[in-house]
């Protein structure tokens, strides 16, 4: 898999990234460490050289699992992790970074991201200038190689960019969730900020494995996902039926087709999680699906059957 440059940095990323929210286990069910470790390793073996995690995923458990899977090939992989919204004061950023370095068993983080803007989840509001000051210093010390943000609006990225270089944005983005395209994607393209799309398979909906009557177990965060509810879910099923013939033409699954469409969008890379080796290898194979301009347009139109009916709220879940 050919790598791409992250923003204007020296960091190289694979267009498909291994996502590891599920590796933390919190807000997921039926996840086993041994299987996750095998999946992360299988993703690496299949060409996915970039892994995305966060300190908040299972209170650091995800980072520990990543280290267990990849410590012996650390020099061949790109680590992206995140500092949470409650650790954005100057001293807290340093402390959080040290914690991530320890759990990841590394002396540098390739991409360090602000997970949610200050004030999210009732966290204390911290001026972005203060947070960026700490991140810039960590970069000067060589502890991090690039700075990114996640779940930021265009205005929030613009403000952060006043205090230092932002090389990536991590937004929710998939064929079925596209609010970021309205004004943020053009800004990222103009300023050479890489987009690392999370929930790139709409939390599994775009795999086509969930039937019309599917119900999630208690404790699974997807129970609260707007795309899995009511008319949105029915429209998604209709769209999936229209996508299947295109996937069959390419002899690939719906997941690979959806990821291939996403990484063909301007400046965009796709973070995809996997519970097992089969899913990990499948995600990697999306980089080999070559879609024509006409097919990209056709897929785009099918996706809009879902996205045109959604509200403007950029958060995918109905969280209290």
Overall description:
Residues 16-302 form the NADP-dependent oxidoreductase domain. The chain is α/β, with parallel strands linked by helices. The chain has a single domain (4-210, 253-290), classed as TIM Barrel. It is 38% helix and 13% strand. The protein contains ten helices and ten strands. The chain has helices spanning 33-45, 61-70, 90-104, 128-140, 154-161, 184-190, 230-249, 254-263, 277-285, 293-307, and strands spanning 4-5, 12-13, 16-19, 50-52, 78-83, 109-114, 144-150, 168-170, 194-197, 268-273. An eight-stranded parallel beta barrel has the order 3-4-5-6-7-8-9-10, surrounded by six helices. The longest helix is centred in the C-terminal third of the chain and has 20 residues, at 230-249. The radius of gyration is 18 Å and the shape is globular. The chain starts with a strand and ends in a 13-residue tail after the last helix.
């Amino acid at each position: 898999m050919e790598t791409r440059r992250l923003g204007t940095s020296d960091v190289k990323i694979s267009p498909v990234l291994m996502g590891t929210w599920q590796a933390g286990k919190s807000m997921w069910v039926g996840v086993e460490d041994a299987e996750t470790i095998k999946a992360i390793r299988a993703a690496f073996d299949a060409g996915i050289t970039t892994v995305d995690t966060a300190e908040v995923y299972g209170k650091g458990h995800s980072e520990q699992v990543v280290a267990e899977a990849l410590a012996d090939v650390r020099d061949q992989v790109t680590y992206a992790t995140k500092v949470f919204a409650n650790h954005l004061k100057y001293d807290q950023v340093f402390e959080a970074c040290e914690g991530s370095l320890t759990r990841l068993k590394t002396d540098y983080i390739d991409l360090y991201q602000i997970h949610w803007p200050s004030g999210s989840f009732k966290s204390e509001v911290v001026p972005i200038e203060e947070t960026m000051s700490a991140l810039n210093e960590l970069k000067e010390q060589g502890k991090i190689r690039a700075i990114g943000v996640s779940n930021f609006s265009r205005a929030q990225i613009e403000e952060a960019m006043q205090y230092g270089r932002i090389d990536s944005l991590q937004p929710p983005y998939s064929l079925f969730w596209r609010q970021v395209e309205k004004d943020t994607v053009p800004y990222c393209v103009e300023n050479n900020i890489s987009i690392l799309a999370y929930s790139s398979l709409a939390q599994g909906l775009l795999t086509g494995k969930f039937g019309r009557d599917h119900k999630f177990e208690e404790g699974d965060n997807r129970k609260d996902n707007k795309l899995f509810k009511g008319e949105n879910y029915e429209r998604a099923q209709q769209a999936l039926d229209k996508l299947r013939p295109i996937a069959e033409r390419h002899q690939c699954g719906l997941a690979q087709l959806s990821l291939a469409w996403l990484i063909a969008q301007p400046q965009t890379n796709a973070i995809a999680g996997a519970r097992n080796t089969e899913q990990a290898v499948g995600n990697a194979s999306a980089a080999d699906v070559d879609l024509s301009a006409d097919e990209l347009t056709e897929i785009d139109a099918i996706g809009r059957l879902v996205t045109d009916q959604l509200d403007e709220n950029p958060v995918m879940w109905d969280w209290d």
